[in-house]
Design goal:
Blueprint (H helix, E strand, L loop, with lengths): L2 H4 L4 H67 L7 E6 L5 E4 L14 E10 L2 E13 L5 E7 L1 H51 L15 H33 L1 H16 L4 H33 L7 E4 H18 L3 E6 L4 E4 L1 H18 L5 E9 L2 E8 L31 H11 L3 E6 L4 E8 L10
Parallel strand pairs: 7-9
Antiparallel strand pairs: 1-2, 1-5, 3-4, 4-5, 6-8, 9-10, 10-12, 11-12
Length: 466
């Protein structure tokens, strides 16, 4: 059986299992480190206690002689002494002089060596074996002294430590299981919500958005990215439906007129002039249709973001000056006062052709709706890290309630329908502005319309000239 079959089927369950495994391993390593660092400390303390006892008894022998040493040993090994202490003083011939040990152990041969003794000790529960750690010391008089400590307290402490660590391990593992379950449940809940929303989207409801809980975690950031993608997809799909509906509605009339004029010309008498007039009108209708399709293609290209691959660093001021030279004579012929206030350099990063078309569309609209004697203004300025393009006229303007509407495709206000056009000019301007991340505002010029676009300024040292 493979490891994959042994693991749970769900990704969240596998995550919880792996989490618990690492958690349990880390707890075991931590508690093992505590145990193996604590037990040697206990052994060292026993050795230090025995060494201190030996030094103290040796001092007693030097200061008070053999009788003082015997008295000190009897006091420490008596009923009121340390129950865990082991003492023995023997004479030169090995006879016992004092202490609570019956005879000198055979294993305690060297002077000052640490030995482990297994002794039998009488307790309330009977005679029990005890392990004792001891050191021997030879006096100058030929007497020998043995001092030791019963390891029972050490063993009891070590056992209590093991028991405490075992309880800690159990509690930690229980917390690990609970934590893994909570984490897997939370992950499963978040993933389940995303899955449910995805299924609704696959059924065609593009208005759905991935849920968030406001924590700002990775799931929320993923939901933000997916929601931005869904918003873009919905905009493109809505635009596609709008284009389809608008094409069916707005192109039916020119195509019908084109067909009707051709049919009338064919049904009438053979007249070269009539045929020529019909062809000229058909050509005009065809030019209008091509212009409409061209505008739609430009808008679609801008909205799809495909033109971003052709972005370059350019000077918007120089580009505006070139276009100004083309439109200033047309403004003069229309009896308009032309004003130009361009302050290069105005470095931006963008698509040269689309930006030129944006400026041209705005100037075309201004020329179309501005009557003789009015004014037309083109301005470019740079300030506070931004480049501002402004085109203003003294025409009829656009009411505040209609300024959002006119940015949509094929939208033409009633008072502008007497002028030729397809209603795509401002929608192209909006699409190009969005492609470049520019802020587009339609304002009142009192009288007329002021269109203000604000671009992010590119670094001057790397900006290219047009």
């Amino acid at each position: 059986m493979t490891l994959q079959r042994l693991l749970p089927a769900g990704a969240t369950a596998r995550f919880a299992l792996v989490y618990f495994g690492f958690f349990a391993l880390s707890v075991l390593l931590l508690l093992g480190w505590v145990y193996f660092r604590t037990v040697p400390v206990l052994d060292r303390q026993v050795g230090e206690t025995v060494a201190a006892e030996l030094r103290g008894l040796a001092d007693q022998a030097r200061e008070r002689g053999l009788s003082g040493l015997v008295e000190a040993i009897d006091r420490r090994s008596g009923e009121n002494g340390d129950p865990n202490g082991v003492y023995l003083l023997v004479g030169p011939q090995g006879e016992k002089l004092a202490g609570n040990l019956g005879a000198w152990p055979d294993t305690a041969i060297g002077d000052g060596d640490w030995v482990l003794l297994t002794l039998r000790r009488r307790t309330d529960e009977g005679v029990q074996p005890r392990q004792v750690g001891a050191r021997s010391f030879a006096l100058q008089t030929g007497h020998r002294l043995l001092v030791g400590r019963d390891f029972g307290a050490r063993a009891h402490y070590a056992g209590a430590l093991v028991e405490a660590l075992a309880w800690a391990l159990g509690a930690a593992l229980l917390l690990g299981v609970a934590g893994g379950w909570l984490i897997s449940r939370n992950v499963a809940r978040r993933v389940g919500a995303v899955t449910a929303t995805s299924r609704q989207i696959m059924r065609g409801d593009l208005s759905q958005r991935m849920p968030k809980d406001g924590s700002g975690d990775e799931f929320d950031r993923l939901s933000d990215s997916l929601n931005a993608m869904l918003q873009r997809i919905e905009e493109l799909m809505t635009g596609l439906r709008t284009v389809s509906d608008s094409l069916a509605h707005d192109l039916r009339s020119p195509l019908t007129r084109l067909k009707g004029r051709i049919e009338l010309a064919l049904r009438g008498p053979e007249d070269t002039e009539a045929y020529r007039e019909a062809l000229e009108r058909a050509l005009a209708e065809a030019d209008h249709l091509l212009a409409t399709f061209g505008g739609l293609l430009s808008i679609a290209r801008a909205e799809a973001g495909a033109a971003k691959s052709q972005f370059e660093l350019l000077d918007l001021g120089l580009l505006a000056e070139e276009i100004s030279e083309l439109y200033e004579p047309a403004a003069s012929e229309a009896g308009l006062s032309w004003r130009s206030s361009i302050q290069p350099p105005a470095p931006v990063e963008g698509h040269r052709q689309l930006l030129a078309q944006l400026i041209s569309n705005l100037l075309d609209n201004a020329l179309k709706y501005c009557s003789g004697g009015g004014t037309l203004e083109l301005a470019v300025k740079t300030s506070a890290g931004q480049v501002e393009l402004c085109i203003a006229d003294s025409g009829p303007g656009i009411p505040v309630k209609d300024r959002e509407t006119v940015l949509k495709r094929f939208v033409r206000l009633d008072e502008s329908r007497r002028e030729p056009g397809s209603g795509l000019g401002l929608s192209l301007v909006a699409a190009v502005a969005k492609l470049h991340g520019a802020d587009l505002r339609l304002e009142d010029n009192a009288p007329g319309l002021r269109v203000r676009l604000t671009f992010e300024q590119a670094p001057p040292q790397t900006a290219a000239t047009t």
